[in-house]
Amino acid sequence: MTTTARLMNRPTSWLAGFGVWTALAVLSSVQSVIFLNSIDQAVQWWPILLGRMADWYTCAVFTPAYFWLVRRYPIDRGHWKASIPVHLVTTSMFVVLKYVMFIAIMRQMEPGWTDRSLQDVLARSFIFETIAFWSVLGIVHAIVFYEGFRDREVQAAELRAQLSASQLEALSAQLHPHFLFNTLQGVSTLMHRDPRGADAMLNRLSELLRRTLHRGARQEVPLEEEMELLGYYVGIMQVRFGDRLIFENQVDGSLKKALVPHFILQPLVENALQHGIARRAGAGRVTVTGARQNGSLVLSIRDDGPAQEKNQPGAMTEGIGLGNTRLRLERLYGAAQRLTLVPIAGGGMLVELVLPYREATT
Asked: pTM for this structure?
């Protein structure tokens, strides 16, 4: 059922339509009174009002039929040749039926109407009443077309939301195998020279995957939860890098309820490790900071790896992790987000993530 059909079935819509026709009857009565006063005729409000109401209400009874007619025979580019003749014939029939009812009502209210025939009334008012009915037809067409436009907008919005959700799920699904492959590669590297370390990595990996897979259908999680997941990942990487990795969490504790995309920090920290810590000789530091600035949540990942020049062999490029991160942010926040990578003078990289600040309600 279309929105228009649903609206026409609502009591409030029927009352609104009744109110419009009543208002027209009252305005028509006022016009009649003004005319009678202008020619110094006596004014009898009650008979005038009843007569005008009978006139307009006998038009109003055709409103549902017009809504059905417009939906069935719309006057648009693809149907107007067939629809206009139908509307012409139907409107003429409605005018005749309207006056059949109107004359019957007026004969009950005013004795003078007993001498008026349907033929006389139609000869006097058929063209004028046809114009009025076509005006009603135009208004109904406008309402139906507007509601159809709104229906298409809602459907388009629903399709965009479904597409966006599907794309987000696909992007998230790509991140997990990518992360898992890299981690298992690290386990394989440790298997022969540090079996205990490899075992510890597998245990932490299983816990991280368990927590990640239990997130449900949520695309966003509180920052506190995201930092906890990041802690599992960093723990895995600390087994791999040992004393060469120093990790600092400098996120403001007041931001723990701030909403962030699930698994958003892991690929950023992974890039810091891959292109920063892994490429320096000694120990390296990765620092995550967070702050609220002008209604936005600003998260930064900084490493002190070697300096990277543009087009330098081995310089950081946007692979699956960063590429998917950008796409996820665009799908979730549009232009309200920003992800920037800035080389630090003297060595290292600063990745800054800016999101709209919103808090979890529970």
From this structure: 0.51
